[in-house]
Amino acid sequence: MAENEELETAESEAKQKILVADDEASIRRILETRLKMVGYDVVTAEDGEEAVEVFNKTNPDLVVLDVMMPKMDGYGVTREIRRTSDIPIIILTALGDVSERITGLELGADDYVIKPFSPKELEARVKAVLRRTISKDVIIPASGSAVASTASGKNSKNIITTGAIKIDTARRQVFRKNERIRLTGMEFSLLELLVNNSGQAYSRNEILQHVWSYPADHRIDTRVVDVHISRLRSKLEADPTNPELILTARGVGYMFQRIN
């Protein structure tokens, strides 16, 4: 009996926790039920202020966040979370309001799902974002150029340096002159893809497939990529308006400068 209780406790502690914040009770109930069915621990909030409170108390692994909520909207909640945490955020947004999606992404959201949506679609996005932002075992095959330029040291195979920027792929951390630059999980995964294949241009659709795990035939606004590129440039580039690291490949998409 005691062994079974210990096992149940261990399994509960191992579950990834999702915070679902939405002012519609029906959506909260559906998402809570479905996400629990596929193995997640779920906590909920019905307005923005409660979402921040629950977030601070429960330390979830991912937040599903409606944009339009009373007391504090999803933008305000995103700002509050991003003050202290880089955990993944998926926003729920209205079908026709592109500005909502872009604003949410610019504030630090990792992905979005358009209302109305199927719970199965959201489950897929949660799984994909968690896999890309939390797993330390994700390794994107390098083209060879980045490996050739790694710094010397005990863990040199995990360190990529270019100019003042040092990227630790094992710890998923980035430094400029030994000062850590905070990146969200999706930002790091995007950077890792481009750096490990420096000099190779990727289209926006290819980036969505590699980093966000969207299927090739999935229709989505590719500005998700543009916003994340802009966020990366603002953190890494000396002059984001004249980037020298993350380059625009005209007619194709984006690439990281070739590492010699």
Describe this structure in words.
The structure is a single chain. With 260 residues, the protein is of the alpha/beta class. It folds into 2 domains: 2-134, Rossmann fold (3-Layer(aba) Sandwich); 145-256, Winged helix-like DNA-binding domain superfamily/Winged helix DNA-binding domain (Arc Repressor Mutant, subunit A). Helices cover 43% and strands 20% of the residues. The strands form 3 sheets. It has a 5-stranded parallel beta sheet, sandwiched between helices. Helix 3 (48-58) runs parallel beside helix 4 (74-84) and helix 6 (119-134) crosses helix 8. The radius of gyration is 19 Å and the shape is globular. The protein starts with a helix and ends with a strand.
Please tell me the total number of domains.
2
Beta-strand share of residues? 15-25%
Largest sheet descriptor: 5 strands, parallel
CATH level 3 topology of the largest domain: Rossmann fold
Rg for CA atoms: 19 Å
Q: What is the string of SSEs from the N terminus onward?
A: HEHEHEHEHEHHEEEEHEHHEE
CATH architecture of the largest domain: 3-Layer(aba) Sandwich
The CATH top-level class label of the largest domain: Alpha Beta
The secondary-structure class comes to: alpha/beta
How many strand segments? 12
- Major sheet: order of its strands? 2-1-3-4-5
* Count of DSSP H/I helices: 10
| Apparent shape | globular
- Helical fraction equals 40-55%
Contiguous uncertain segments of 5+ residues: 1-13, 135-155
Overall average residue pLDDT:
83
